[in-house]
């Protein structure tokens, strides 16, 4: 063995401890670590001619990169939809890295990681109050979850038209219907060869909403004249967290032949609160559901899962099968994830999820979800009462979508956003809603507290002051 590698093996304990210590410095100071940093792009950095092992790699990292790590997993990073990592999720994730299992088959030749994945999926179904007639698995994010679900949907649609798409490729008509699909579903359609511009768009209830108009949806279905199709519906849109009417879609599913996919990447967590669970009522009839774990479940990246009705198991295996003779019997008998989803070799992604679910349960997550929503509403109230800002949409759940009053010059919105983000205490992202330039703040972090909202409000006022010169 290489000399330095041999040395590192001898001091493995202290090496791992030093990495953990470094991580703890970050975690214990996360409230003060900036939400954004300025840095210069580095070129021409070479590998060392005489490498010195893990300790020196850590030294170089500390010297060059430590201070550039932003607090994206902290309490005031409201950009995109960015979760954090609960203590137990971190424990599970660290162990997943250390055990380094290749999670594939439940047969388990010494590796039970796939069995634990099965268990985690069962627990999640219970967690979200979904029936147990779904199978599921873990992928890297909601984008891949949408891809997986829509991949099975594609196989279903092909079969309805007498084609085995997995074998012969995409030919003929593939009707996909949606109102406000997330960009990642559009990307998934592109990757699946279904075409990102082939979506049959249905209007929303009215221009100020992002939920599909059910009457117009039924009209669009009738216009298809009995052709089967895929419906992509929203269980929480990113701009305004609007939900399609799941009950009404479940009704339509009784009358018409379609594959119903729900993207509930973060909106699915509404199921945990009796106050908001009604938004999802009826979703248990969907053929497939996407939910992210690295958002509101607060598990480290890259973590998401999908649920597909067990009755579609054969279509799913047809789509993703890797070996020649996939076993289709009892999934617990000899199930192999490599025939069931895009990846072949896979990390032990279920472990952090399992840890955090066991540690905090429905009760703990209901508290996080309801607190995030209350805090979003509180930030919304500040905006409504402010002389500078206005909401672009009501705060329906955990996201505040707003802009500057009197949109005379849309550049002011960007200037304001830049000023807020440059302050390093809070991070938000730009959006466009109803043709107006706006800003989104999405709250899905377990740490966020009342105090953080007051800090954010103060930062927003400071930023208004900073751009005053631009305004007048
Ligand atoms: C975040 C998000 C996605 C994409 O998720 P990734 O985890 O970034 O792949 C898809 N749909 C919705 C509704 C989202 O919020």
UniProtKB/TrEMBL annotation:
<keyword id="KW-0032">Aminotransferase</keyword>
<protein>
    <submittedName>
        <fullName>Aspartate aminotransferase family protein</fullName>
    </submittedName>
</protein>
<keyword id="KW-0456">Lyase</keyword>
<dbReference type="GO" id="GO:0006520">
    <property type="term" value="P:amino acid metabolic process"/>
</dbReference>
<dbReference type="GO" id="GO:0016831">
    <property type="term" value="F:carboxy-lyase activity"/>
</dbReference>
<keyword id="KW-0663">Pyridoxal phosphate</keyword>
<dbReference type="InterPro" id="IPR015422">
    <property type="entry name" value="PyrdxlP-dep_Trfase_small"/>
</dbReference>
<dbReference type="InterPro" id="IPR015424">
    <property type="entry name" value="PyrdxlP-dep_Trfase"/>
</dbReference>
<keyword id="KW-0210">Decarboxylase</keyword>
<dbReference type="InterPro" id="IPR010977">
    <property type="entry name" value="Aromatic_deC"/>
</dbReference>
<feature type="modified residue" description="N6-(pyridoxal phosphate)lysine">
    <location>
        <position position="295"/>
    </location>
</feature>
<keyword id="KW-0808">Transferase</keyword>
<dbReference type="Pfam" id="PF00282">
    <property type="entry name" value="Pyridoxal_deC"/>
</dbReference>
<comment type="similarity">
    <text>Belongs to the group II decarboxylase family.</text>
</comment>
<dbReference type="InterPro" id="IPR002129">
    <property type="entry name" value="PyrdxlP-dep_de-COase"/>
</dbReference>
<dbReference type="GO" id="GO:0030170">
    <property type="term" value="F:pyridoxal phosphate binding"/>
</dbReference>
<dbReference type="GO" id="GO:0019752">
    <property type="term" value="P:carboxylic acid metabolic process"/>
</dbReference>
<dbReference type="InterPro" id="IPR015421">
    <property type="entry name" value="PyrdxlP-dep_Trfase_major"/>
</dbReference>
<dbReference type="GO" id="GO:0008483">
    <property type="term" value="F:transaminase activity"/>
</dbReference>
């Amino acid at each position: 063995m290489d000399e330095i590698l041999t040395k590192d093996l001898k001091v493995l304990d202290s090496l791992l401890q030093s990495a953990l210590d470094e991580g703890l410095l970050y975690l214990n100071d996360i409230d003060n670590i900036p939400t954004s940093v300025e840095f210069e792009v580095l070129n021409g950095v070479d590998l060392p001619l005489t490498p010195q092992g893990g300790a020196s790699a850590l030294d170089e990292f500390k010297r060059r990169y430590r201070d550039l790590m932003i607090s994206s997993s902290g309490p005031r990073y409201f950009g995109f939809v960015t979760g954090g990592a609960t203590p137990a999720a971190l424990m599970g994730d660290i162990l997943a890295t250390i055990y380094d299992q290749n999670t594939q088959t439940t047969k388990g030749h010494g590796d039970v990681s796939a069995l634990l994945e099965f268990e985690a999926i069962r627990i999640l179904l219970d967690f979200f109050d979904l029936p147990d007639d779904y199978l599921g698995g873990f992928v890297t994010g909601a984008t891949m979850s949408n891809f997986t679900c829509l991949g099975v949907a594609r196989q279903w649609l092909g079969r309805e038209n007498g084609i085995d798409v997995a074998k012969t490729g995409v030919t003929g008509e593939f009707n996909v219907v949606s109102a406000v699909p997330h960009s990642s579903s559009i990307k998934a359609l592109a990757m699946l060869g279904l075409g990102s511009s082939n979506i049959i768009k249905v209007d929303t209830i009215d221009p100020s909403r992002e939920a599909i108009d059910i009457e117009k949806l039924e009209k669009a279905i009738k216009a298809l004249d009995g052709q089967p199709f895929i419906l992509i519906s929203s269980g929480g849109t990113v701009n305004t967290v609007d939900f399609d009417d799941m009950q009404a879609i479940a009704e339509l599913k009784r009358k018409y032949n379609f594959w119903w996919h729900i993207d509930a990447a973060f909106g699915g967590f509404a199921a945990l609160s009796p106050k908001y669970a009604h938004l999802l009522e009826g979703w248990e009839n969907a053929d497939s559901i996407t939910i992210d774990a690295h958002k509101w479940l607060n598990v480290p990246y890259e973590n998401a899962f999908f649920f597909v009705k067990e009755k579609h198991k054969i279509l799913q295996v047809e789509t993703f099968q890797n070996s020649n003779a996939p076993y289709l019997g009892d999934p617990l008998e000899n199930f192999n994830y490599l025939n069931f989803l895009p990846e072949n070799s896979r990390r032990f992604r279920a472990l952090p999820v399992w840890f955090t679910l066991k540690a905090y349960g429905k009760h703990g997550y209901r508290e996080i979800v309801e607190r995030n929503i209350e805090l979003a509403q509180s930030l919304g109230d500040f905006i409504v009462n402010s002389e500078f800002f206005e909401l672009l949409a009501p705060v329906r759940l955990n996201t505040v979508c707003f802009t500057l009053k009197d949109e005379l010059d849309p550049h002011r919105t960007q200037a304001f956003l830049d000023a807020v983000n440059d302050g390093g205490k809070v991070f938000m992202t730009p959006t466009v809603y109803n043709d107006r330039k706006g800003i989104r703040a999405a709250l899905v972090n377990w740490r966020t507290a009342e105090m953080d909202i007051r800090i954010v409000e103060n930062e927003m006022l400071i930023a208004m002051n900073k751009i005053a010169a631009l305004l007048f």
